[in-house]
Amino acid sequence: MNIHHLELFHYVAKHEGIAGAVRNIPYGIQQPAVSAQVIQLENDLGATLFQRRPFELTPAGVELYDFIHPFFENLDSMGGKIRGGVAQTIRIGASGVVFREHLPNLLNAARKEYPGLHPALRVGIQPEIEQWLLANDVDLGVTVLGTKPPTELKSEKLIELPMVLVVPTTGRVKSAADILGQDRIAQTLISLPQNEGISRTFQTELAARKIDWPIGMELNSTDLISTYVANGFGFGVSVDLPGERKNKGVKLLPLEDFPTVTIGCLWRGQLPPVGQTLVKLLQAHAAGL
Question: In the sheet where 235-239 sits, what is the strand order?
Answer without folding.
Answer: 215-218, 189-191, 235-239, 163-168, 250-254
